[in-house]
Here is the input.
Amino acid sequence: MIIKKRPAWSLPHSQVTPESVFLNRRRFMTGALAATAALALPGYGAAGSLPVPGEMLKYKKMPDWSTDEGLTPYEDATSYNNFYEFGTDKGDPKRYASALKTAPWTVTVEGECSKGGEYALEDILKPHDYQERIYRLRCVEAWSMVVPWIGVPLADLLTQFEPTPRARYVYFETLFEPEQMRGQRSAFSTIDWPYREGLRMDEAMNELSFMAVGLYGKTLPNQNGGPMRLVVPWKYGFKSIKSIVKIRFQETRPKTTWELIAPSEYGFYANVNPEVDHPRWSQKRERRLPSGLFSVNWMDTQKFNGYGDQVAQLYRGMDLKRFF
Ligand code: MTE
Here is the structure.
């Protein structure tokens, strides 16, 4: 038997669909075939213009940045969501996010960079080819998914704005538009809108950090953060901010939404870590979706969500219990 040693996160795309998701294979294959066809076209990933909602994207598969764990079926990934701008029930985002207008979409870039300004989304995507990366997504609530994202490396997207050496952090903000986002109109919301997130610059420039504009070969559905959302796979899902309209480079650490709401429960770093429990529940295991009510699909949670080879060095010497 030939044993080929690869890191846990680096597995061939050809192994992506196990029997457990066989029933969804046809749907998956439709996407995969379209993607293969797209690869045959010249200029495969040139973004060119703003992706039209629901349209197939052209992209290059990135097996070295992908897991071969079974994909969470498209239906589950797009109907079991956290997007509090549309409500707190997992079904609310799909139910209500069609009210969000994703085109035209403007992104404001400001702070410690030479090329700040107000950009049409298509203009900041245009220089980049799209890639597909199949990442694990681990929510702080102890459920997880495996999602094939389409997008661009965050480092490539950010570098075009020429951050200055004073940029030690990057801050992101979601759209604030109560007329379109019913959760922002709710009198019961504990969130001080807009939803905010941030990363240290070295985290943002890490090869795994990704700005997604699609999933399963298609543009991002609104409930998943269309037209553009962050994906930081070694951190709890709340760091992966959706529907981004602002990017700011700054010298000081930004305050982030969940840290502002409950600083003793949600930290700035939010690295997936089975050794540091949430004050109200264990982080040692996770429910991989789809998961039945009576046959829960439990699995052990991995430190840094299994991406330690890529990111552990970012936190060398840090007490991860203190900087949770
Ligand atoms: N971004 C915004 N703007 N609002 C949110 O409520 N929820 C976060 C994150 N990004 C959230 C957000 C949480 S808690 C998770 S787990 C992920 O989105 C879920 O992403 P998904 O719905 O695509 O699975």
Observations:
- Residues 1-48 have pLDDT under 50 and may be disordered.
